[in-house]
Amino acid sequence: MSAKSVLYALALIIGSSYVTYTIVNSSPQKDTSKKKKNVADLIGNTPMVHIASLSKQTGCEIYAKLEMANPGGSAKDRVALSVIRHFENIGELVPGRGDVLFEGTSGSTGISFAMLCNALGYTAHICLPDDTSNEKLQLLESYGAEIEKVKPASIVDPNQYVNAARKGALQLKNDKTTASNGVFADQFENDNNWRAHYAATGPEIWEQMDHDIDYFVTGSGTGGTIAGCSRFFRTVSNKIKVVLADPQGSGMYNRVKYGVMYDGVEKEGTRRRHQVDTIIEGIGLNRVTHNFLQGEHCIDDAVRVTDEQAVRMARFLSSNDGLFVGSSSSINAVAAVKIAKTAKKGSKIVIIACDSGTRHLSKFWKHALEVDRNITLGEVIQ
Ligand SMILES: Cc1ncc(COP(=O)(O)O)c(C=O)c1O
Predict the structure, then answer these.
(1) Ligand 1, pocket-test mutation among 222, 230, 242, 360, most atoms within 8 A of CB
(2) 76-184 has the same fold as 9-70+193-381
(3) Transmembrane: is it a keyword of this entry (predicted)?
(4) Are 51 and 333 in contact, with CB atoms under 8 Å apart?
C-alpha cells in the first residue's frame, strides 16, 4: 500500500467515525436489487452523468450529480431525513403521537419533509414565501402538508417564513393541552444539514468520479451542500477546487471573493424584491448561515451568473443533452463553463443538479421556453 493510499484510508476512517455519532440511518445505500421498506430507503446514491455538449465544447469533462433522482425530487431529501432521524434519536419526534415538524422553506425542503413525514408518521407544517412557484405549492398540497404562506421578507422580520416556522413549533411544544410535540427543522442553522452531505453526497461523488475531481461547483442556499461536500473533499484530496456559483442579487459572491456580504442591488432604491433579486429559486442569500460557515474555509472561489445566462443554459442542456434541469442546476452549469475557460484542458468538473425543470415550469422555464432551442453555447454565456 502506498503512503498516499494509507493517508486516504486514514482520512476515510476518521471522516466516517466523525459522522456516525450524529448521522444515524440518514444515508442508506440504495441497492436496487433489494426490496425497500419505505421511501426513506430510496434516498441517496443518485447518479452521476457526463454532460457531453458542455464537455465537447469546453475541452473539460463536465459531470452532473443528479440529485433530482432522489424520491422527493431534490437533494433536500437527504437533509430532511437526517434532521428527522436526529429528532427521533433525541425523542423529540415519536411516530403516531401527532408530532408536527415545522419548516420555513422556499419549496424543495418542504416537499422532502412532506414526503418523509407521511412515510414516517408525522405532519409537516411548511411556511413559505407567497411567490413560491405553483408546482412546489401543488406538490406540497398533494402530499397533504399544512401550508402557511407569508409575504417575502427579510430574516429580521418576525413574519419571515423561517421565523414563522420557529414560532409555530414553539407554540405546539409549549401547548400543555396536547401530547403532540412541535419541532423546528431549521435547515439553515441545523448541523444535520451539512453533515448529511458530508456523510453521503461528498463520498458518493468521490467514488463515482474514481477519486479524480478538479472542480466542484454548486450554489448556496442554506450552505449545507457546499459545506458538507467541500469539507468531505478536504479529507480526501487537496487538489479539488470548490467554487460557489451565485445568482444575481446574492451577496455570497462578494463574501467568498472579498469577505464582504454585499450586492449592488442593496443600494437604496435599486432592490426590486425583498430577499435576493433573482428568478432563481433555492440559492443566493444576503446573510451568512450557520451551515455556510461550516464549510466557508473550504471554498476557493466564486462565479457570478445572471438570470439570463441561467435561463439560456437550461434551454441549451435540454436541447443538446436531454437534461431537463431546474434553475439552480442551470446556474451551476453556467459557472462550470466559465471555470472551464481558464481551467487546464481535460479538467474534471462536477456540478450539483439539485432538482428538475418540472419544479420550475411556471416561472423559470416559462422564460427558458422563449429561448431558441438551437442557441449556441457562446450565446448562452454572453
Ligand atoms: C433547488 C435548490 N437548489 C439548490 C439549493 C441549495 O442547497 P443548500 O441549501 O444545500 O445550499 C436549494 C436549497 O434550498 C434548492 O432548493
Answers:
(1) 222
(2) yes
(3) yes
(4) yes
* Pocket lining: 299 vs ligand 1, CB cutoff 6 Å: no
Q: Burial level of 50, CB count in 10 A (0-12/13-18/19+)?
A: exposed
Q: 209 CA to middle of ligand 1, Å?
A: 22
- Backbone angles phi and psi of 53, in degrees to 5: -60, -50
Q: What is the DSSP string of 68-133?
A: GGSTTSBTHHHHHHHHHHHHHHTTS--TTTT-EEEEE-SSHHHHHHHHHHHHHT-EEEEEEETTS-
Transcribe 315-376 into DSSP letters.
Answer: HHHHHHH---B-HHHHHHHHHHHHHHHHSPTT-EEEEEE-BBGGGGTTTHHHHHTTS-TT--
Percent of the chain whose predicted confidence (pLDDT) is above 70? 88
Q: How many helices (H) and strands (E) does the chain have?
A: 15, 10
CB–CB of 197/220 below 8 Å?
Answer: no
Ligand 1 neighbourhood includes 191 CB (under 6 angstroms): no
User: What's the pLDDT score for residue 21?
Assistant: 35
Min mean pLDDT across 5-9, 81-85, 174-178, 203-207 is at 5-9
The yes-or-no verdict on residue 378 having pLDDT over 70 is yes
Q: Check if 219 has its Cβ closer than 6 Å to any atom of ligand 1.
A: yes
Whether ligand 1 lies within 6 angstroms of the CB of 223 is answered as yes
Contact present, 114 and 74 (Cβ < 8 Å): no
Listed by start position, the domains of the chain span: 9-70+193-381, 76-184
Beta pairing class for 123-129 and 48-50 = unpaired
Which residue has the CA at smallest separation from atom 13 of ligand 1? Answer: 282
CB distance 178 to 157 below 8 Å:
no
CB 244 within 8 A of CB 301: yes
Q: What is the mean pLDDT of residues 190-206?
A: 98
* DSSP code of residue 226: H
Query: Rounded distance, CA 23 to CA 199, Å?
Result: 7
- Do the bridges between strand 348-353 and strand 215-218 make them parallel or antiparallel, or are there none, so unpaired? parallel
CA of 314 to the centre of ligand 1 (A): 17
pLDDT value, residue 30: 60
Question: Under CATH, what is the fold of the domain 76-184?
Answer: Rossmann fold (3.40.50)
Any idea which architecture 9-70+193-381 has in CATH? Answer: 3-Layer(aba) Sandwich (3.40)
pLDDT confidence of residue 14: 44
